[in-house]
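Regression test case RT-17, inverse folding.

Input:
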């Protein structure tokens, strides 16, 4: 019998947190699931932990693969999934005890193509509820066109629909097409590169008020010195959107993509100042890269009406690298 939910758990060197993650899935009072543990070439004890759980619960599948990054791990899990809906849980996070039952209730009643739910941000003993910033309930295609599509990628005020892949249950046929279409070179923004086309393809969407996912704000990762992002990322995601979402569909998607490219490009440019090089050397590198034709077009056509967006656009358009430098210093360990 086909399980209702397939949960893909990409895992890489999270041995301290992995058992809590898996236990949160297998200890629930719900059986119609399969749990796909994808060990993405971990060098710690994660492979052994995965194999031990394989012997404990027959709903678990384990995939061991060479390290290839988050996209390739999710794609490997996707190929093995057989459930009606696919969910994603990162190996250092966990889910609430009513996770499956809440989702199953929505499926039984509405059978939507996509279910979106809130997230709890956990940092030590602190917990912050982050529900989806939309009215709860069922959205048909017309509702989505009126209320979600105008901010699906990013609107003039910098607003965008929740991109996180781990706060969504998506029908397998839709999810598979969107996840398998991703370029595994995408390392930043891989969530929304999958979820935004999936939402566009969905005919119905349900927004659940409750926060069912617990996202761990890892103190170690928060204080670790940051690294420079790849320059190819914004273009990979921009071209992916252009391929997967019709740009001339009446919802300003082309303009939304330009803003997304500039948004991502600003973050990449800021991150270059995390490198141990002189201001002049980093500035020269930024100048060379943002002059690429694809990026020049996005910067030229981008329009923002919010302060942060205008600042990011203005900074890139007029090569104000001192602002990028100051932004990097302010955000280096935040």
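Golden output:
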């Amino acid at each position: 019998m086909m399980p209702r939910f397939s949960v893909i758990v990409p895992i890489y060197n999270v041995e301290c947190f992995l058992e809590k993650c898996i236990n949160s899935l297998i200890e629930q009072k719900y059986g119609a699931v399969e749990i796909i543990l994808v060990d993405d070439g971990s060098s710690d004890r994660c492979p052994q932990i995965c194999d031990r759980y394989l012997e404990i619960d027959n709903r678990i599948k384990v995939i061991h693969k060479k390290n290839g990054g988050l996209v390739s791990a999710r794609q490997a899990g996707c190929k093995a999934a057989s459930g009606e809906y696919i969910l994603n849980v990162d190996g250092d996070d966990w889910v609430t005890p009513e996770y499956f039952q809440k989702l199953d209730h929505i499926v039984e009643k509405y059978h939507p193509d996509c279910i979106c739910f809130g997230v709890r941000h956990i940092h030590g003993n602190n917990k912050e509820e982050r529900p989806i910033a939309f009215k709860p309930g069922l959205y048909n295609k017309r509702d989505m066109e009126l209320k979600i599509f105008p901010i699906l990628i990013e609107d003039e005020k910098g607003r965008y629909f929740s991109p996180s892949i781990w706060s969504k249950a998506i029908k397998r046929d839709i999810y598979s097409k969107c996840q398998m279409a991703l370029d595994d070179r995408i390392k930043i923004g891989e969530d929304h590169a999958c979820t935004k086309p999936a939402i566009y393809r969905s005919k119905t969407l349900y927004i659940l008020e409750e926060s069912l996912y617990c996202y761990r704000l890892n103190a170690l990762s928060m204080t670790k010195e940051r690294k420079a992002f790849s320059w190819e990322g914004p273009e990979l995601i921009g071209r992916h959107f252009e391929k997967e979402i019709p740009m001339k569909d009446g919802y300003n998607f082309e303009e939304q993509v330009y803003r997304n490219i500039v948004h991502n490009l600003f973050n990449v440019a800021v991150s270059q100042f995390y490198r141990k090089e002189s201001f002049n050397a980093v500035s020269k590198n930024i100048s060379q890269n943002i002059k690429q034709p694809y990026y020049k077009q996005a910067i030229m056509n981008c329009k923002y009406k919010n302060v942060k967006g205008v600042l990011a656009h203005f900074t890139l358009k007029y090569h104000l690298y001192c602002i990028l430098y100051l932004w990097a210093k302010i955000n280096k360990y935040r």
